[in-house]
Design goal:
eight-stranded mixed beta sheet, 14 strands, alpha/beta
Length: about 300
């Protein structure tokens, strides 16, 4: 099972606080931690931990943060031979996490802004050899489109995670096989100001012929293959301490299950269990589960 990932890597600087500061307010007493992140890297590591052979394309700076990324991928068994080093700082995100696990994130893209479609051309063989391409929106829009088209040209299925929320040109949208938005991202893709899953799925279905997995937080997820629509109840976490990596854990597990040929409901339950595991752990990497963490019943 081979998965290629075109996406982001960066370092997360996390502050844990009892509440968010108001405008002009300074709060003390927070706890600080520094750790790797970026949706592409997170999803690549998540898929590798669940048994996939993973190749990653992203961009980092020639700095200590980029070197830490390369060491992380080596340790996690992710093929990072295609990762490019550019003349910019490695992407950095500042993450504010409240006691109930809710978060707010600010990102300085840095090196990711210098990732180019030409880099995708150099990654084409890895995409062609993969059973699935995963791509998300923390990289330039033209790189997303180039990756999707490259996969389609080579007969590789595409999982598109439209996070953070940004639209996709229709000619590229037509090439997506599996779409995995959350409610906010679905609103951006459809232009609808509603959180009603059925309304959002109906509107998404007008634009995408792909299978859709709409994640709805504590309401679980909805899967729609164009014929059937099913609600997947949430898997209850033992505790909720940090929601930051839940979507990445969900996407990684869904990708692995899909590559294994599992039916859509089973794949979504497996992904929901991965998301529940993630929110029970502080920081993203510790919250990415291994197969033994998700249980045989799934």
């Amino acid at each position: 099972m081979r998965i290629a990932v075109v996406g982001s890597y960066g370092t997360g600087m996390t502050m844990r606080t009892s509440r968010m500061p108001g405008r002009g307010e300074t709060l003390s007493g927070a706890a600080f931690s520094l750790g790797p992140g970026g949706k592409g890297s997170n999803q690549a590591i998540g898929a590798a931990r669940l048994g996939a052979e993973v190749a990653l394309l992203t961009a980092v700076g020639d700095d200590v943060l980029g070197a830490q990324g390369r060491e992380l991928w080596r340790r996690e068994g992710v093929d990072a031979s295609a990762v490019v080093t550019v003349d910019a700082s490695t992407m950095t995100g500042v993450i504010l996490v409240e006691d109930d696990g809710e978060n707010r994130i600010i990102v300085a893209p840095g090196a990711l802004d210098l990732l180019r479609p030409a880099h995708v051309d150099g990654f084409a063989d890895a995409i062609a050899a993969a059973d699935l391409l995963m791509v998300c929106n923390e990289i330039p829009a033209d790189v997303v489109v180039s990756a999707v088209r490259t996969a389609a040209d080579r007969g590789t299925r595409v999982l598109f995670n439209p996070a953070p929320a940004r639209d996709l040109p229709q000619d590229a949208a037509d090439l997506v096989d599996l779409l995995t938005p959350n409610l906010t991202e679905a609103q951006v893709l459809t232009g609808l100001d509603t959180t009603d899953p059925d309304a959002l799925l109906d509107a998404l279905r007008e634009r995408f012929s792909s299978t859709i997995a709409l994640t709805c937080g504590t309401d679980g997820a909805y899967v729609d293959d164009g014929t059937d629509r099913t609600h997947i109840p949430p898997v209850r976490a033992a505790r909720v301490v940090d929601t930051t990596g839940a979507g990445d854990a969900f996407n990684a597990a869904f990708a692995v299950a899909w590559c294994r040929g599992w039916d859509l409901r089973r794949a979504a339950r497996y992904a929901a269990a991965a998301g529940a595991f993630a929110v029970a752990h502080h920081e993203v990497i510790p919250g990415l589960p291994r197969s033994e963490d998700l249980g045989p019943a799934l």
